[in-house]
User: Which sequence fits this backbone?
């Protein structure tokens, strides 16, 4: 029942007892909502709090919510429908997070693509997921691996929160896929791992994040 671990600040011979039952407790009531709805609810509670910082640029929760709503409308106009896979081929930036939230708000499933991967593999991942669209910050010629797949090109302007649009309001199950992440494929063919909205909610709202020990997290 008790797990004893030696804490570095304690004297030799002393141990700290952690209750395994408490640590592994799954009796936590979690909201039955998709990720983007939980985000929008947080934006309603803390609209002017900083949500995203990249270099010298910061977006508040309200700004990020509005910008991602705008991009969701753009995706739907481009043909994205609930359940569709959308490739994300962008550098780490404000635009990446806006695009990710926009895909979820459009009811889609995002597929992150790493530019360090061979282009043949990137094209294969798009085909393997049945992606209907590629979102990128690359110019013409930088996405030849996508073949005939429609491409939406974005820049820093995607993060501009100019005017508010009515949220699309797609009713999604928390068990719907949120994203597909691929293994490295170092031992063979890469494998796509599907994570649902519920999966991410269970991680993000794990009560142990509230312990104060997770101020910074390497992801």
Assistant:
């Amino acid at each position: 029942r008790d797990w004893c671990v030696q804490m570095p600040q304690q004297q030799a011979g002393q141990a700290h007892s952690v209750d395994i039952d408490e640590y592994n407790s799954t009796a936590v009531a979690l909201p039955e909502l998709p990720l983007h709805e939980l985000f929008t609810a947080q934006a309603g509670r803390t609209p002017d709090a900083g949500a995203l910082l990249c270099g010298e640029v910061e977006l508040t929760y309200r700004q990020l919510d509005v910008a991602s709503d705008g991009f969701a409308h753009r995706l739907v106009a481009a043909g994205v429908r609930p359940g569709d896979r959308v490739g994300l081929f962008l550098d780490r930036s404000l635009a990446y997070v806006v695009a990710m939230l926009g895909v979820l708000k459009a009811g889609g499933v995002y597929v992150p693509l790493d530019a360090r991967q061979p282009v043949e593999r990137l094209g294969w991942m798009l085909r393997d997921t049945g992606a209907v669209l590629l979102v990128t910050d690359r110019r013409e010629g930088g996405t030849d691996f996508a073949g005939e797949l429609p491409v939406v090109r974005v820049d820093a302007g995607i993060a501009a929160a100019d005017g508010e649009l009515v949220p699309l309001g797609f009713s999604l199950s928390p068990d719907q896929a949120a994203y597909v992440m691929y293994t490295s494929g170092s031992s063979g063919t890469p494998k796509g791992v599907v994570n649902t909205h519920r999966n991410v909610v269970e991680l993000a709202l794990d009560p142990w994040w509230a312990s104060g020990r997770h101020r910074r997290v390497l992801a």
Q: What stands out?
A: Strands lie at 2-5, 16-19, 50-54, 57-60, 85-89, 109-112, 133-136, 151-153, 177-182, 192-196.
